[in-house]
Amino acid sequence: MSTTVAHEPTFLAQREFHPFEAGGETFLYLVPSAAVFHLDEPSLAVLQALDAGAASEDALVTALAPRLGETAVRRSLAELMRVQAIGLTTAPKETFPRVLPQADFPLTTMVLNVTNKCNLACTYCYEYGEDKIVDTTCDPAPNYMSEETAQQSVDFMFEQSGDLPVAHLTFFGGETLLNFKVLQKTVAYARERARELGKDVDFSLTTNGTLLRDKVIDWLAENRIGVTVSIDGPKEMQDKFRVFKNGMGSYDYAMPKIKRLLERHNTRPIGARVTLTRQTLSVKRIFHHLRNEIGFWEVGFAPVTTADQRGYAIEDAGFDHMLDQFNELAQEFLDFAVEDRHHGFSNVKDTIEEIHKGVSKAFPCGAGLGLMGVATDGDVALCHRFAGSDDHSIGSVQTGLDRKRQFEFLGHHHVANKTDCSTCWARPLCAGGCYHEAHVRYGDTGVANLHYCDWIRSWTNTCLEVYGEIAVRNPGYLEQFEA
Amino acid sequence: MDHLKAINQKARRIQAHVGASVAANGGAAHAPASPAASDPDALDVVGLESRQGPHIPLGCSLVFAPGWEVDSTGGTAGLCQPVERDLFDCHLACFWPAHVPDQLNHAPDWTGKCAAAQKDWRKIDLIFP
Protein backbone atom coordinates (compact mmCIF):
# COMPACT_ATOMS: atom_id res chain seq x y z
CA MET A 1 0.00 0.00 0.00
CA SER A 2 1.44 3.30 -0.96
CA THR A 3 0.13 6.66 -1.84
CA THR A 4 0.91 8.49 -5.00
CA VAL A 5 0.63 12.21 -4.80
CA ALA A 6 -1.35 13.33 -7.79
CA HIS A 7 -1.69 16.95 -8.81
CA GLU A 8 -5.30 17.11 -9.85
CA PRO A 9 -6.80 20.25 -11.33
CA THR A 10 -8.24 22.37 -8.56
CA PHE A 11 -12.00 22.47 -8.54
CA LEU A 12 -14.00 25.07 -6.72
CA ALA A 13 -17.40 24.43 -5.22
CA GLN A 14 -19.97 26.24 -3.13
CA ARG A 15 -19.65 25.88 0.61
CA GLU A 16 -22.38 26.39 3.16
CA PHE A 17 -24.52 29.50 2.89
CA HIS A 18 -28.06 30.67 2.41
CA PRO A 19 -28.64 33.26 -0.33
CA PHE A 20 -31.53 35.68 0.00
CA GLU A 21 -32.91 38.65 -1.86
CA ALA A 22 -34.06 41.88 -0.35
CA GLY A 23 -34.65 45.37 -1.69
CA GLY A 24 -33.73 44.20 -5.18
CA GLU A 25 -30.27 43.06 -4.04
CA THR A 26 -28.76 39.65 -3.32
CA PHE A 27 -27.16 38.75 -0.01
CA LEU A 28 -25.39 35.74 1.44
CA TYR A 29 -25.91 34.40 4.93
CA LEU A 30 -22.77 32.37 5.57
CA VAL A 31 -22.86 29.21 7.66
CA PRO A 32 -21.55 28.69 10.28
CA SER A 33 -19.99 32.15 10.61
CA ALA A 34 -23.40 33.91 10.38
CA ALA A 35 -21.83 36.76 8.41
CA VAL A 36 -24.06 38.64 5.96
CA PHE A 37 -22.46 39.91 2.75
CA HIS A 38 -23.96 41.80 -0.13
CA LEU A 39 -23.08 40.44 -3.58
CA ASP A 40 -22.42 42.54 -6.66
CA GLU A 41 -22.99 41.31 -10.21
CA PRO A 42 -19.69 39.47 -10.80
CA SER A 43 -19.65 37.74 -7.42
CA LEU A 44 -23.28 36.70 -7.86
CA ALA A 45 -22.50 35.38 -11.36
CA VAL A 46 -19.60 33.33 -9.99
CA LEU A 47 -21.78 31.79 -7.31
CA GLN A 48 -24.57 31.04 -9.76
CA ALA A 49 -22.10 29.41 -12.14
CA LEU A 50 -21.29 27.00 -9.31
CA ASP A 51 -24.96 26.12 -8.77
CA ALA A 52 -24.57 23.28 -11.22
CA GLY A 53 -21.60 21.79 -9.38
CA ALA A 54 -17.85 22.19 -8.95
CA ALA A 55 -15.82 23.86 -11.66
CA SER A 56 -12.19 24.81 -12.18
CA GLU A 57 -11.12 28.39 -11.86
CA ASP A 58 -10.12 28.53 -15.50
CA ALA A 59 -13.46 27.18 -16.64
CA LEU A 60 -15.26 29.83 -14.60
CA VAL A 61 -13.09 32.59 -16.00
CA THR A 62 -13.59 31.34 -19.56
CA ALA A 63 -17.33 31.25 -19.08
CA LEU A 64 -17.79 34.56 -17.33
CA ALA A 65 -14.94 36.83 -18.47
CA PRO A 66 -16.49 37.83 -21.82
CA ARG A 67 -19.47 39.32 -19.99
CA LEU A 68 -17.87 40.57 -16.78
CA GLY A 69 -14.15 40.92 -17.47
CA GLU A 70 -11.40 38.61 -16.28
CA THR A 71 -10.22 40.87 -13.48
CA ALA A 72 -13.67 41.10 -11.91
CA VAL A 73 -14.21 37.35 -12.12
CA ARG A 74 -10.85 36.45 -10.59
CA ARG A 75 -11.22 39.01 -7.83
CA SER A 76 -14.73 37.82 -7.05
CA LEU A 77 -13.42 34.27 -6.85
CA ALA A 78 -10.67 35.30 -4.48
CA GLU A 79 -13.05 37.24 -2.25
CA LEU A 80 -15.64 34.48 -2.13
CA MET A 81 -12.88 32.06 -1.16
CA ARG A 82 -11.62 34.30 1.59
CA VAL A 83 -15.01 34.48 3.28
CA GLN A 84 -15.42 30.73 2.65
CA ALA A 85 -18.54 31.04 0.52
CA ILE A 86 -16.71 28.82 -1.95
CA GLY A 87 -13.75 26.53 -1.50
CA LEU A 88 -11.63 23.82 -3.02
CA THR A 89 -13.32 20.47 -3.38
CA THR A 90 -10.21 18.92 -1.83
CA ALA A 91 -10.38 21.07 1.30
CA PRO A 92 -11.78 19.38 4.39
CA LYS A 93 -15.36 20.16 5.27
CA GLU A 94 -15.76 22.99 7.70
CA THR A 95 -16.41 21.55 11.12
CA PHE A 96 -18.26 23.27 13.88
CA PRO A 97 -15.78 23.12 16.73
CA ARG A 98 -17.24 21.64 19.88
CA VAL A 99 -15.86 24.24 22.22
CA LEU A 100 -17.33 24.39 25.68
CA PRO A 101 -17.38 27.63 27.61
CA GLN A 102 -14.94 28.22 30.42
CA ALA A 103 -15.84 26.82 33.80
CA ASP A 104 -16.34 30.27 35.32
CA PHE A 105 -18.72 31.47 32.61
CA PRO A 106 -20.62 34.23 34.39
CA LEU A 107 -24.31 34.13 35.18
CA THR A 108 -26.14 37.04 33.56
CA THR A 109 -29.73 36.19 34.41
CA MET A 110 -31.28 34.29 37.25
CA VAL A 111 -34.94 33.35 37.22
CA LEU A 112 -36.53 32.84 40.63
CA ASN A 113 -39.63 30.69 40.70
CA VAL A 114 -41.04 32.40 43.77
CA THR A 115 -44.04 30.10 43.83
CA ASN A 116 -45.30 27.06 42.00
CA LYS A 117 -48.92 27.99 42.78
CA CYS A 118 -51.19 29.74 40.34
CA ASN A 119 -54.63 31.30 40.62
CA LEU A 120 -55.38 30.41 37.02
CA ALA A 121 -55.66 26.94 35.52
CA CYS A 122 -54.60 27.48 31.90
CA THR A 123 -55.31 24.23 30.12
CA TYR A 124 -52.03 24.13 28.22
CA CYS A 125 -49.75 25.12 31.11
CA TYR A 126 -46.46 23.23 31.00
CA GLU A 127 -46.19 23.54 34.76
CA TYR A 128 -49.58 22.07 35.72
CA GLY A 129 -51.08 20.74 32.50
CA GLU A 130 -50.83 17.36 30.86
CA ASP A 131 -47.16 17.80 30.00
CA LYS A 132 -45.88 18.87 33.40
CA ILE A 133 -42.50 17.53 34.43
CA VAL A 134 -42.76 18.18 38.15
CA ASP A 135 -45.68 16.97 40.21
CA THR A 136 -46.03 19.99 42.46
CA THR A 137 -48.86 18.48 44.51
CA CYS A 138 -46.76 15.55 45.72
CA ASP A 139 -43.38 17.24 45.57
CA PRO A 140 -41.90 17.99 49.01
CA ALA A 141 -40.68 21.40 47.81
CA PRO A 142 -42.59 24.32 49.35
CA ASN A 143 -45.28 26.00 47.29
CA TYR A 144 -43.85 29.40 48.10
CA MET A 145 -40.21 30.38 48.15
CA SER A 146 -39.18 31.57 51.59
CA GLU A 147 -37.52 34.90 52.19
CA GLU A 148 -34.41 33.08 53.30
CA THR A 149 -34.15 30.98 50.11
CA ALA A 150 -34.75 34.09 48.01
CA GLN A 151 -31.90 35.88 49.77
CA GLN A 152 -29.61 32.89 49.36
CA SER A 153 -30.54 32.97 45.67
CA VAL A 154 -29.55 36.62 45.42
CA ASP A 155 -26.20 35.88 47.04
CA PHE A 156 -25.74 32.94 44.69
CA MET A 157 -26.55 35.16 41.70
CA PHE A 158 -23.98 37.82 42.59
CA GLU A 159 -21.40 35.18 43.38
CA GLN A 160 -21.94 33.49 40.00
CA SER A 161 -22.06 36.75 38.05
CA GLY A 162 -18.28 37.07 38.22
CA ASP A 163 -16.97 40.37 36.97
CA LEU A 164 -20.16 41.38 35.20
CA PRO A 165 -21.24 44.85 36.30
CA VAL A 166 -24.97 44.07 36.06
CA ALA A 167 -26.99 41.10 37.25
CA HIS A 168 -30.51 40.44 35.99
CA LEU A 169 -33.02 38.97 38.38
CA THR A 170 -36.32 37.73 36.97
CA PHE A 171 -39.28 36.57 39.04
CA PHE A 172 -41.40 33.79 37.73
CA GLY A 173 -43.99 31.29 38.91
CA GLY A 174 -46.66 29.90 39.14
CA GLU A 175 -48.24 33.30 39.45
CA THR A 176 -45.39 35.48 40.61
CA LEU A 177 -47.55 38.01 42.45
CA LEU A 178 -48.96 35.33 44.77
CA ASN A 179 -45.70 35.74 46.68
CA PHE A 180 -45.66 39.53 46.62
CA LYS A 181 -44.27 39.88 50.13
CA VAL A 182 -41.14 37.89 49.28
CA LEU A 183 -40.80 39.82 46.00
CA GLN A 184 -40.66 43.10 47.86
CA LYS A 185 -38.14 41.88 50.41
CA THR A 186 -35.97 40.24 47.76
CA VAL A 187 -35.80 43.34 45.60
CA ALA A 188 -34.79 45.42 48.61
CA TYR A 189 -32.20 42.85 49.64
CA ALA A 190 -30.76 42.55 46.12
CA ARG A 191 -30.42 46.32 45.83
CA GLU A 192 -28.60 46.47 49.15
CA ARG A 193 -26.23 43.66 48.18
CA ALA A 194 -25.62 45.25 44.79
CA ARG A 195 -24.69 48.51 46.47
CA GLU A 196 -22.25 46.72 48.76
CA LEU A 197 -20.67 44.93 45.81
CA GLY A 198 -20.57 48.01 43.56
CA LYS A 199 -22.79 46.34 40.98
CA ASP A 200 -26.10 47.08 39.33
CA VAL A 201 -29.11 44.82 39.45
CA ASP A 202 -32.03 44.82 37.06
CA PHE A 203 -35.43 43.29 37.82
CA SER A 204 -38.23 41.89 35.76
CA LEU A 205 -41.19 39.59 36.27
CA THR A 206 -43.87 37.73 34.41
CA THR A 207 -47.48 37.76 35.58
CA ASN A 208 -50.91 36.76 34.37
CA GLY A 209 -52.18 40.21 35.33
CA THR A 210 -54.99 39.10 37.60
CA LEU A 211 -53.35 40.30 40.82
CA LEU A 212 -52.22 43.74 39.71
CA ARG A 213 -53.65 45.88 42.47
CA ASP A 214 -52.76 49.59 42.53
CA LYS A 215 -50.38 49.05 45.40
CA VAL A 216 -48.56 46.36 43.41
CA ILE A 217 -48.44 48.48 40.27
CA ASP A 218 -46.98 51.43 42.12
CA TRP A 219 -44.35 49.24 43.68
CA LEU A 220 -43.42 47.83 40.25
CA ALA A 221 -43.13 51.34 38.82
CA GLU A 222 -41.15 52.71 41.75
CA ASN A 223 -38.71 49.85 41.56
CA ARG A 224 -38.38 50.01 37.78
CA ILE A 225 -39.34 46.38 37.43
CA GLY A 226 -39.82 45.25 33.85
CA VAL A 227 -43.16 43.50 33.45
CA THR A 228 -44.23 40.90 30.93
CA VAL A 229 -47.88 39.94 30.94
CA SER A 230 -48.87 36.47 29.77
CA ILE A 231 -51.98 37.06 27.72
CA ASP A 232 -53.37 35.39 24.62
CA GLY A 233 -55.24 38.24 22.93
CA PRO A 234 -58.84 39.44 22.65
CA LYS A 235 -61.47 38.01 24.98
CA GLU A 236 -62.51 35.01 22.94
CA MET A 237 -58.91 33.84 22.59
CA GLN A 238 -57.77 34.69 26.11
CA ASP A 239 -60.77 32.88 27.57
CA LYS A 240 -60.25 29.73 25.55
CA PHE A 241 -57.39 28.41 27.66
CA ARG A 242 -56.47 31.07 30.21
CA VAL A 243 -59.18 30.26 32.72
CA PHE A 244 -59.74 30.17 36.45
CA LYS A 245 -60.10 26.82 38.15
CA ASN A 246 -63.88 26.96 37.79
CA GLY A 247 -63.48 27.34 34.05
CA MET A 248 -64.29 31.03 33.92
CA GLY A 249 -62.26 33.04 31.43
CA SER A 250 -59.80 35.54 32.84
CA TYR A 251 -60.05 38.36 30.27
CA ASP A 252 -62.72 40.44 31.98
CA TYR A 253 -61.02 40.07 35.31
CA ALA A 254 -57.44 40.76 34.20
CA MET A 255 -57.89 43.39 31.51
CA PRO A 256 -58.91 46.37 33.66
CA LYS A 257 -55.89 45.66 35.86
CA ILE A 258 -53.59 45.36 32.84
CA LYS A 259 -54.87 48.68 31.50
CA ARG A 260 -54.20 50.25 34.87
CA LEU A 261 -50.66 48.82 34.78
CA LEU A 262 -50.02 50.29 31.35
CA GLU A 263 -51.35 53.61 32.57
CA ARG A 264 -49.41 53.87 35.81
CA HIS A 265 -46.18 51.96 35.18
CA ASN A 266 -44.19 54.29 32.97
CA THR A 267 -40.66 53.58 34.11
CA ARG A 268 -40.15 50.53 31.89
CA PRO A 269 -41.72 49.34 28.61
CA ILE A 270 -44.29 46.61 29.21
CA GLY A 271 -44.53 43.58 26.98
CA ALA A 272 -47.14 40.94 26.26
CA ARG A 273 -46.25 37.31 25.79
CA VAL A 274 -48.72 35.25 23.78
CA THR A 275 -49.00 31.47 23.66
CA LEU A 276 -50.32 30.33 20.30
CA THR A 277 -52.46 27.21 20.03
CA ARG A 278 -54.36 25.46 17.27
CA GLN A 279 -57.51 27.29 18.37
CA THR A 280 -55.98 30.74 18.80
CA LEU A 281 -53.87 31.39 15.73
CA SER A 282 -55.09 34.80 14.62
CA VAL A 283 -51.64 36.30 15.06
CA LYS A 284 -52.36 39.64 13.39
CA ARG A 285 -55.59 40.16 15.24
CA ILE A 286 -53.97 39.31 18.56
CA PHE A 287 -51.06 41.62 17.82
CA HIS A 288 -53.19 44.61 16.91
CA HIS A 289 -55.47 44.10 19.88
CA LEU A 290 -52.61 43.96 22.35
CA ARG A 291 -50.34 46.54 20.73
CA ASN A 292 -52.79 49.14 19.42
CA GLU A 293 -56.01 48.70 21.36
CA ILE A 294 -54.53 47.82 24.74
CA GLY A 295 -51.20 49.61 24.43
CA PHE A 296 -48.43 47.08 25.14
CA TRP A 297 -45.02 48.32 24.00
CA GLU A 298 -44.07 44.94 22.58
CA VAL A 299 -45.86 41.71 21.78
CA GLY A 300 -44.03 38.39 21.46
CA PHE A 301 -45.45 35.07 20.33
CA ALA A 302 -44.52 31.46 20.97
CA PRO A 303 -46.29 28.29 19.91
CA VAL A 304 -47.56 26.25 22.85
CA THR A 305 -45.10 23.70 24.18
CA THR A 306 -46.85 20.36 24.11
CA ALA A 307 -46.79 16.75 23.14
CA ASP A 308 -48.14 16.49 19.63
CA GLN A 309 -51.32 14.55 20.42
CA ARG A 310 -52.85 17.29 22.56
CA GLY A 311 -55.97 19.06 21.33
CA TYR A 312 -54.31 22.47 21.39
CA ALA A 313 -51.08 21.39 19.62
CA ILE A 314 -50.56 23.29 16.41
CA GLU A 315 -50.67 20.97 13.42
CA ASP A 316 -48.81 21.43 10.12
CA ALA A 317 -51.50 23.49 8.41
CA GLY A 318 -51.62 25.64 11.52
CA PHE A 319 -47.88 26.29 11.32
CA ASP A 320 -48.33 27.44 7.72
CA HIS A 321 -51.15 29.74 8.72
CA MET A 322 -49.10 31.10 11.60
CA LEU A 323 -46.13 31.67 9.33
CA ASP A 324 -48.24 33.58 6.78
CA GLN A 325 -49.38 35.93 9.49
CA PHE A 326 -45.92 36.27 10.97
CA ASN A 327 -44.73 37.24 7.49
CA GLU A 328 -47.42 39.87 7.14
CA LEU A 329 -46.54 41.32 10.52
CA ALA A 330 -42.85 41.25 9.57
CA GLN A 331 -43.70 43.34 6.51
CA GLU A 332 -45.46 45.83 8.77
CA PHE A 333 -42.40 45.85 10.99
CA LEU A 334 -40.24 46.57 7.96
CA ASP A 335 -42.41 49.53 6.90
CA PHE A 336 -42.09 50.96 10.40
CA ALA A 337 -38.32 50.34 10.58
CA VAL A 338 -37.69 52.09 7.28
CA GLU A 339 -39.30 55.18 8.80
CA ASP A 340 -37.46 54.73 12.11
CA ARG A 341 -40.71 54.01 13.92
CA HIS A 342 -41.31 51.51 16.70
CA HIS A 343 -43.54 48.61 15.72
CA GLY A 344 -43.56 46.23 18.64
CA PHE A 345 -43.45 42.76 17.04
CA SER A 346 -40.70 41.48 19.27
CA ASN A 347 -40.13 38.15 17.49
CA VAL A 348 -38.78 39.89 14.41
CA LYS A 349 -36.84 42.52 16.30
CA ASP A 350 -35.05 39.97 18.46
CA THR A 351 -34.08 37.90 15.43
CA ILE A 352 -32.87 40.93 13.49
CA GLU A 353 -30.68 41.89 16.39
CA GLU A 354 -29.10 38.43 16.37
CA ILE A 355 -28.65 38.58 12.62
CA HIS A 356 -26.99 41.97 12.84
CA LYS A 357 -24.58 40.82 15.52
CA GLY A 358 -23.81 37.67 13.54
CA VAL A 359 -24.67 35.36 16.42
CA SER A 360 -23.63 31.77 15.75
CA LYS A 361 -24.88 29.63 18.58
CA ALA A 362 -23.27 26.57 20.09
CA PHE A 363 -26.34 26.23 22.31
CA PRO A 364 -29.89 27.23 21.48
CA CYS A 365 -30.21 29.45 24.55
CA GLY A 366 -28.42 30.45 27.70
CA ALA A 367 -30.04 27.78 29.91
CA GLY A 368 -27.51 26.21 32.25
CA LEU A 369 -24.93 28.68 31.06
CA GLY A 370 -25.67 32.41 31.46
CA LEU A 371 -29.20 31.76 32.70
CA MET A 372 -30.44 29.50 35.47
CA GLY A 373 -33.74 28.90 37.17
CA VAL A 374 -34.21 28.47 40.91
CA ALA A 375 -37.04 26.36 42.33
CA THR A 376 -38.96 27.30 45.47
CA ASP A 377 -36.67 25.12 47.62
CA GLY A 378 -33.48 26.64 46.18
CA ASP A 379 -32.63 23.92 43.70
CA VAL A 380 -30.88 25.37 40.65
CA ALA A 381 -32.22 24.14 37.32
CA LEU A 382 -31.24 24.76 33.69
CA CYS A 383 -33.96 27.38 33.41
CA HIS A 384 -37.29 28.29 34.98
CA ARG A 385 -39.09 25.69 32.89
CA PHE A 386 -37.13 22.91 34.57
CA ALA A 387 -37.24 24.41 38.07
CA GLY A 388 -38.01 21.71 40.60
CA SER A 389 -37.11 18.82 38.32
CA ASP A 390 -34.54 16.59 39.99
CA ASP A 391 -33.45 15.24 36.62
CA HIS A 392 -32.48 18.70 35.45
CA SER A 393 -30.97 20.11 38.60
CA ILE A 394 -27.43 21.49 38.41
CA GLY A 395 -26.98 22.37 42.05
CA SER A 396 -28.66 24.47 44.67
CA VAL A 397 -28.29 27.99 45.98
CA GLN A 398 -27.45 26.56 49.39
CA THR A 399 -24.68 24.18 48.33
CA GLY A 400 -23.53 25.80 45.11
CA LEU A 401 -23.34 24.74 41.49
CA ASP A 402 -22.61 21.17 40.52
CA ARG A 403 -20.04 22.07 37.87
CA LYS A 404 -19.60 18.48 36.76
CA ARG A 405 -23.28 18.08 36.04
CA GLN A 406 -23.46 21.46 34.39
CA PHE A 407 -20.63 20.65 31.99
CA GLU A 408 -21.93 17.17 31.30
CA PHE A 409 -25.14 18.85 30.25
CA LEU A 410 -23.37 21.42 28.08
CA GLY A 411 -21.13 18.78 26.50
CA HIS A 412 -24.14 16.66 25.65
CA HIS A 413 -26.22 19.52 24.27
CA HIS A 414 -23.69 21.25 22.02
CA VAL A 415 -25.08 21.80 18.51
CA ALA A 416 -22.17 19.76 17.13
CA ASN A 417 -23.85 16.70 18.69
CA LYS A 418 -27.10 17.30 16.83
CA THR A 419 -26.50 15.53 13.57
CA ASP A 420 -29.87 16.63 12.25
CA CYS A 421 -28.68 20.22 12.48
CA SER A 422 -25.34 19.66 10.76
CA THR A 423 -26.71 20.31 7.27
CA CYS A 424 -29.16 23.07 8.17
CA TRP A 425 -28.29 26.63 7.21
CA ALA A 426 -30.40 28.03 10.04
CA ARG A 427 -28.38 26.36 12.79
CA PRO A 428 -26.34 29.48 13.75
CA LEU A 429 -29.58 31.02 15.00
CA CYS A 430 -31.61 27.98 16.04
CA ALA A 431 -29.08 25.40 17.26
CA GLY A 432 -31.85 22.85 17.66
CA GLY A 433 -34.33 24.91 19.67
CA CYS A 434 -35.69 24.86 23.20
CA TYR A 435 -34.53 22.04 25.52
CA HIS A 436 -37.85 22.03 27.32
CA GLU A 437 -39.78 21.81 24.07
CA ALA A 438 -37.63 18.83 23.05
CA HIS A 439 -38.12 17.22 26.44
CA VAL A 440 -41.90 17.52 26.25
CA ARG A 441 -42.07 16.48 22.62
CA TYR A 442 -39.47 13.72 22.47
CA GLY A 443 -38.62 12.99 26.09
CA ASP A 444 -35.02 14.09 25.54
CA THR A 445 -33.59 17.58 26.02
CA GLY A 446 -30.71 16.74 23.69
CA VAL A 447 -32.59 16.21 20.44
CA ALA A 448 -33.32 18.86 17.87
CA ASN A 449 -36.93 20.05 17.64
CA LEU A 450 -37.51 18.49 14.24
CA HIS A 451 -41.24 19.24 14.24
CA TYR A 452 -40.64 22.89 13.53
CA CYS A 453 -37.52 22.86 11.29
CA ASP A 454 -39.39 23.97 8.17
CA TRP A 455 -41.08 26.66 10.13
CA ILE A 456 -37.80 27.94 11.62
CA ARG A 457 -36.07 28.02 8.24
CA SER A 458 -38.96 29.89 6.66
CA TRP A 459 -39.16 32.34 9.48
CA THR A 460 -35.40 32.90 9.56
CA ASN A 461 -35.48 33.55 5.83
CA THR A 462 -38.21 36.15 6.36
CA CYS A 463 -36.16 37.85 9.06
CA LEU A 464 -33.09 37.83 6.77
CA GLU A 465 -35.16 39.46 4.04
CA VAL A 466 -36.45 42.11 6.43
CA TYR A 467 -32.89 42.63 7.67
CA GLY A 468 -31.50 42.93 4.13
CA GLU A 469 -34.17 45.39 3.12
CA ILE A 470 -33.54 47.55 6.18
CA ALA A 471 -29.81 47.43 5.34
CA VAL A 472 -30.61 48.75 1.86
CA ARG A 473 -33.28 51.31 2.72
CA ASN A 474 -32.45 52.53 6.20
CA PRO A 475 -29.11 51.16 7.44
CA GLY A 476 -29.10 53.69 10.30
CA TYR A 477 -31.90 51.70 11.97
CA LEU A 478 -29.48 48.83 12.59
CA GLU A 479 -27.10 50.97 14.64
CA GLN A 480 -29.27 50.43 17.72
CA PHE A 481 -28.09 46.81 17.76
CA GLU A 482 -24.40 47.68 17.86
CA ALA A 483 -23.94 47.60 21.61
CA MET B 1 -12.90 43.73 -0.83
CA ASP B 2 -14.44 45.11 -4.01
CA HIS B 3 -17.21 42.65 -4.81
CA LEU B 4 -18.51 41.61 -1.42
CA LYS B 5 -19.83 44.21 0.97
CA ALA B 6 -19.96 43.36 4.65
CA ILE B 7 -23.41 44.08 6.05
CA ASN B 8 -23.58 42.77 9.60
CA GLN B 9 -21.08 43.01 12.43
CA LYS B 10 -19.75 39.49 11.92
CA ALA B 11 -19.12 40.17 8.24
CA ARG B 12 -17.22 43.32 9.17
CA ARG B 13 -15.04 41.33 11.55
CA ILE B 14 -14.32 38.74 8.85
CA GLN B 15 -13.50 41.52 6.41
CA ALA B 16 -11.10 43.12 8.89
CA HIS B 17 -9.47 39.75 9.53
CA VAL B 18 -9.16 38.96 5.82
CA GLY B 19 -7.86 42.48 5.15
CA ALA B 20 -5.18 42.05 7.79
CA SER B 21 -3.99 38.71 6.41
CA VAL B 22 -4.00 40.05 2.85
CA ALA B 23 -1.93 43.04 3.95
CA ALA B 24 0.49 40.66 5.65
CA ASN B 25 0.85 38.86 2.34
CA GLY B 26 2.00 42.02 0.60
CA GLY B 27 -1.35 43.37 -0.53
CA ALA B 28 -1.95 40.61 -3.02
CA ALA B 29 -5.66 41.32 -2.96
CA HIS B 30 -5.28 44.32 -5.18
CA ALA B 31 -3.60 42.47 -7.99
CA PRO B 32 -5.87 40.71 -10.44
CA ALA B 33 -4.91 37.20 -9.60
CA SER B 34 -6.15 33.72 -9.00
CA PRO B 35 -7.08 32.58 -5.50
CA ALA B 36 -3.76 30.80 -5.43
CA ALA B 37 -1.83 33.94 -6.18
CA SER B 38 -3.73 36.11 -3.74
CA ASP B 39 -3.70 33.62 -0.95
CA PRO B 40 -0.73 31.24 -0.84
CA ASP B 41 -2.61 28.84 1.40
CA ALA B 42 -5.67 28.61 -0.78
CA LEU B 43 -4.56 25.93 -3.22
CA ASP B 44 -2.15 24.07 -1.00
CA VAL B 45 -2.78 20.40 -0.49
CA VAL B 46 -3.49 19.76 3.13
CA GLY B 47 -0.98 17.43 4.74
CA LEU B 48 1.75 17.64 2.13
CA GLU B 49 3.17 20.98 3.10
CA SER B 50 6.92 21.01 3.59
CA ARG B 51 6.96 24.22 5.57
CA GLN B 52 8.08 24.41 9.17
CA GLY B 53 5.61 23.24 11.73
CA PRO B 54 4.29 20.04 13.17
CA HIS B 55 4.30 17.25 10.63
CA ILE B 56 1.04 15.42 10.11
CA PRO B 57 1.32 12.60 7.59
CA LEU B 58 -1.29 12.44 4.88
CA GLY B 59 -4.00 10.00 5.80
CA CYS B 60 -2.95 9.84 9.38
CA SER B 61 -5.61 8.78 11.80
CA LEU B 62 -5.76 8.70 15.56
CA VAL B 63 -4.27 5.20 15.40
CA PHE B 64 -0.76 6.22 14.50
CA ALA B 65 -0.07 3.49 11.99
CA PRO B 66 2.32 4.68 9.34
CA GLY B 67 3.24 2.69 6.28
CA TRP B 68 0.87 3.98 3.72
CA GLU B 69 1.56 7.61 4.53
CA VAL B 70 4.27 9.74 3.13
CA ASP B 71 6.51 12.02 5.08
CA SER B 72 6.77 15.76 4.79
CA THR B 73 8.86 15.51 1.64
CA GLY B 74 6.50 13.11 -0.10
CA GLY B 75 8.82 10.13 0.48
CA THR B 76 8.90 7.40 3.11
CA ALA B 77 12.35 7.95 4.65
CA GLY B 78 11.18 10.30 7.36
CA LEU B 79 8.31 8.28 8.73
CA CYS B 80 8.27 7.70 12.44
CA GLN B 81 8.00 3.96 11.82
CA PRO B 82 9.29 1.99 8.81
CA VAL B 83 6.97 1.48 5.90
CA GLU B 84 7.45 -2.29 6.19
CA ARG B 85 5.74 -2.29 9.54
CA ASP B 86 2.57 -1.94 7.56
CA LEU B 87 2.73 -5.65 6.69
CA PHE B 88 1.67 -6.45 10.19
CA ASP B 89 -0.42 -3.44 10.68
CA CYS B 90 -3.27 -4.69 8.59
CA HIS B 91 -4.40 -7.13 11.18
CA LEU B 92 -3.20 -5.33 14.26
CA ALA B 93 -4.62 -1.87 14.14
CA CYS B 94 -6.30 -1.39 10.83
CA PHE B 95 -9.27 -3.73 11.19
CA TRP B 96 -8.41 -5.35 7.89
CA PRO B 97 -7.62 -8.98 8.62
CA ALA B 98 -8.47 -10.38 5.20
CA HIS B 99 -5.19 -9.28 3.73
CA VAL B 100 -2.94 -11.33 5.96
CA PRO B 101 -2.89 -15.06 6.53
CA ASP B 102 -4.71 -16.65 9.41
CA GLN B 103 -1.84 -17.01 11.85
CA LEU B 104 -3.81 -18.87 14.49
CA ASN B 105 -4.69 -21.92 12.38
CA HIS B 106 -3.48 -21.98 8.84
CA ALA B 107 -0.11 -20.23 8.85
CA PRO B 108 1.19 -19.94 12.42
CA ASP B 109 4.77 -19.54 11.24
CA TRP B 110 4.10 -16.99 8.54
CA THR B 111 6.41 -14.46 10.11
CA GLY B 112 8.74 -16.98 11.80
CA LYS B 113 11.80 -15.78 9.95
CA CYS B 114 10.96 -12.14 10.24
CA ALA B 115 12.22 -10.93 13.58
CA ALA B 116 12.33 -7.26 12.64
CA ALA B 117 10.07 -6.21 9.82
CA GLN B 118 12.21 -3.30 8.79
CA LYS B 119 15.19 -5.60 8.23
CA ASP B 120 13.70 -9.02 7.52
CA TRP B 121 10.55 -8.29 5.58
CA ARG B 122 11.85 -10.15 2.51
CA LYS B 123 11.90 -13.36 4.55
CA ILE B 124 8.17 -13.42 5.05
CA ASP B 125 6.70 -16.49 3.38
CA LEU B 126 4.22 -16.44 0.61
CA ILE B 127 1.06 -18.18 1.69
CA PHE B 128 -1.33 -19.86 -0.69
CA PRO B 129 -4.85 -20.66 0.42
Which tags fit this structure?
heterodimer, A: 483 residues, alpha/beta, Outer Surface Protein A, domain 3, TIM Barrel, 2 domains, 10-stranded mixed sheet, 3-stranded antiparallel sheet, 16 strands, 16% strand, disordered N terminus, B: 129 residues, mainly alpha, 4 helices, elongated
Report the strand count of chain B.
1
Low-pLDDT residue spans of chain B: 28-38, 40-67, 93-97
Proportion of residues in helical segments of chain A: 25-40%
Output the CATH topology of the largest domain in chain A. Answer: TIM Barrel
Give the termini separation of chain B: 65 Å
CATH class of the largest domain in chain A: Alpha Beta
Which structural class do you get from the secondary structure elements of chain B?
mainly alpha
Share of helical residues of chain B:
10-25%
Give the class of chain A from helix and strand content and strand pairing.
alpha/beta
Unreliably modeled segments of chain A: 1-7
How confident overall, as mean pLDDT of chain A? 92
How much of the sequence of chain A is in beta strands?
15-25%
Approximate shape of chain B? elongated
**Tally of DSSP helical segments of chain B:** 4
Architecture per CATH nomenclature, i.e. the level-2 architecture of the largest domain in chain A = Alpha-Beta Barrel
The beta-strand count of chain A equals 16
Strand content of chain B: under 5%
| Overall shape of chain A | globular
